[in-house]
From TrEMBL:
Location of the region described as Disordered in the Swiss-Prot/TrEMBL record: 1-151
Keyword Coiled coil applies: yes
Keywords noted in UniProt: Coiled coil
Protein name per the record: YacP-like NYN domain protein
Compositionally biased region (Pro residues): 44-58
Biased composition (Basic and acidic residues): 105-120, 129-151
Pfam families, A to Z: NYN_YacP
Organism: Actinoalloteichus hoggarensis
Residue runs in coiled coils: 275-391
Length: 581
């Protein structure tokens, strides 16, 4: 909940022990403006006789009842007239020698007259001027109150002094949080949703507008403040802002009087601040002027000393210049002779350089030719080494695959047939006749036989891509067929450990499978080359003895790979096996 008490030196001008000041930025602007106006006005003239004081900024008539209350409370009368107790601001003004009347006069006079008045005015003159200004104000207020008793209630809420507006917003914001939803006016319901810290700051305009227009809201705020914070609406408080707020909320006839007192104090505080800034600025400018005069005298002495020293230095430099002229003529003669000799030496050197350059160019051309021949020879040697290395690696891979195949086949046969340690008759001892090996791979007709082949060690499965996909799912696009077959073959390779190669026709291929599993190879035939020829080449490249399975329904391809020892598998059999994954 925001504080309802008045911060010292912030909300109420003239309250407490010190005079409130505006922000540093405003004080600097005033301090910069007053000397500028004083300089533009010319020399400082003697102070002019004081003019009659201007009427206060916030003037409202007071009635006879308010004057009667003022007569019973001397301290209130002093505050209403714009004066202060002897121990307050008036005592501070006597110490500094700058009275409140001088502030009002300085506000109306030009800048140079303000400075002159502030420097020449003493404590006695300040008190005399303050008395002259204060008395007409009190007399004018009393006369207005008797002449216009009904004008006491005519208060312009838009022109309320800032301390009163801020205090009203704080009291209303605090009360708004304690009212029931039915008591909150409709325009203030959005403001009631704010946090207590933001309610007075961001909802100030709606709060003041509702206080001005709604008597019910003012009464609700007054009742709530009287119950929770009675000190904030105390009509007998020593704080003029608190009295003005309480009178405005209660509709008291003394509200205009206390509003005027607060407005006058705010104006007095502003004038005092401007006066202090102007005096400080004037003192600072006087000190700066003294410093500049001292610096100017020192600079003139330094200039005179420098002039004397420069004349002596000029004479010395002239003598040296004459001596240097003689040496310069001698040096020019010597330089001309040396230049002639250098020209002759340069001509001889250029001739020698030309001959050496021609010889160097000939040697460079010959070296470049030798280096070119050497590079060609090295390239030929490297090509030969690379070819030999690749051929040796291919042979080693073929041998390794064949050895792995043979070893796996032997181990599998021993395990399948349960062959023992070799005791008993040899197989050749039991053969009564001889049979001719066909040397051809058998056709696989079911998925069980395909599983047995895929279980062989180092088996290689070669798949005719489009032959299988157009048999299994011809309704898909070619790209979708390739993607689906590659995924299924990847799963089969991961489960069986077989090496899988799928071959597609490479004509009009736009996209390739995005995901290819490990152990699966996807090949596309070159333009003008059929996928069938690539399959035959793959089978022919495998070493004899390695089990190779070719999945295709093309009879010509199946017959050709069977003659090379591969096992052809129909596309339907492979699709059936893939369907079980």
């Amino acid at each position: 909940m925001p504080s309802l008490s008045s911060p010292a030196g912030s909300d109420e001008p003239g309250a407490g022990t010190g005079s409130p000041r505006r922000g540093d930025a405003a004080a600097d602007d005033d301090a910069a403006e007053l000397p500028a106006r004083a300089e533009s006005a010319g020399p400082v003239s003697p102070p002019a006789p004081p003019e009659p004081p201007a009427p206060p900024v916030f003037r409202q008539p007071v009635d006879a009842a308010a004057d009667g209350l003022a007569s019973t409370r001397p301290s209130d009368e002093v505050r209403a007239a714009g004066e202060e107790p002897a121990g307050g601001e008036a005592a501070g003004e006597r110490v500094t020698g700058e009275p409140a009347a001088a502030e009002q006069t300085a506000h109306e006079q030009p800048a140079h007259e303000q400075l002159a008045d502030e420097k020449t005015a003493g404590p006695a003159g300040a008190e005399h001027t303050a008395a002259e200004h204060t008395a007409p104000e009190r007399a004018g207020d009393g006369q207005t109150a008797h002449d216009h008793p009904a004008a006491e209630q005519e208060i312009d809420w838009e022109q309320l002094p800032e301390p009163i507006r801020a205090r009203l917003a704080e009291v209303a914001a605090a009360a708004l949080g304690g009212l029931t939803p039915a008591e909150v006016p409709r325009p203030l319901r959005p403001v009631a949703k704010f946090t207590p810290g933001k309610r007075a700051r961001f909802g100030r305009g709606p709060l003041l507008a509702e206080l001005r227009t709604s008597t019910a809201f003012r009464s609700a705020v007054l009742v709530w403040a009287g119950q929770h914070h009675p000190a904030s609406i105390d009509l007998e408080s020593d704080d003029p802002v608190t009295r003005a707020v309480a009178a405005l909320l209660a509709g008291d006839e003394r509200s205009a009087r206390w509003v005027r007192v607060v407005a006058r104090r705010a104006e007095d505080a502003q004038l005092r601040s401007e006066r202090d800034v102007a005096v400080t600025r004037a003192e600072r400018m006087a000190a700066e002027l003294d410093r500049l005069r001292a610096e100017n005298g020192a600079a003139r002495a330094a200039v005179e000393l420098a002039r004397t020293e420069s004349e002596a230095e000029l004479d010395r430099l002239r003598r040296r210049l004459r001596e240097q002229g003689v040496r310069l003529r001698q040096a020019k003669d010597a330089a001309a002779a040396a230049l002639l000799e250098a020209e002759q030496a340069r001509a001889a050197a250029e001739e020698a350089v030309r001959e050496l350059t021609e010889q160097r160019d000939r040697e460079r051309d010959r070296a470049e030719a030798e280096r070119a021949r050497a590079r060609r020879a090295l390239a030929d040697v490297e090509i030969a080494r690379q070819s030999a290395r690749e051929a040796r690696q291919a042979d080693e891979v073929r041998l390794a695959l064949l050895v792995d195949t043979l070893g796996g086949a032997v181990t599998g046969l021993r395990r399948e047939l349960g062959i023992g340690g070799g005791s008993g008759p040899r197989p050749a001892d039991l053969v009564s006749g001889a049979s001719v090996s066909q040397g051809m791979g058998a056709r696989v007709t079911d998925s069980a036989a395909l599983d047995r082949l895929l279980a062989l060690p180092a088996v290689h499965l070669v798949v005719d891509g489009y032959n299988v996909t157009k048999t299994g799912y011809p309704e898909l696009t070619l790209a979708a067929q390739r993607e689906r077959l590659a995924q299924q073959l990847g799963a089969l390779a991961a489960r069986t450990g077989a090496e899988v190669t799928v071959v597609f026709d490479g004509a009009d291929v736009v996209s390739v499978p995005t995901v290819v599993s490990r152990g699966t190879r996807v090949l596309f035939s070159d333009p003008g080359v059929l996928a069938d020829d690539v399959i035959r080449a793959l089978v022919a490249a495998e070493p004899e003895g390695r089990p190779v399975v070719v999945a295709t329904s093309d009879r010509a391809v199946a017959d050709s790979v069977r003659r090379r020892g591969a096992h052809p598998v129909a596309s339907a059999v492979l699709l059936a096996r893939l369907g079980r994954i």
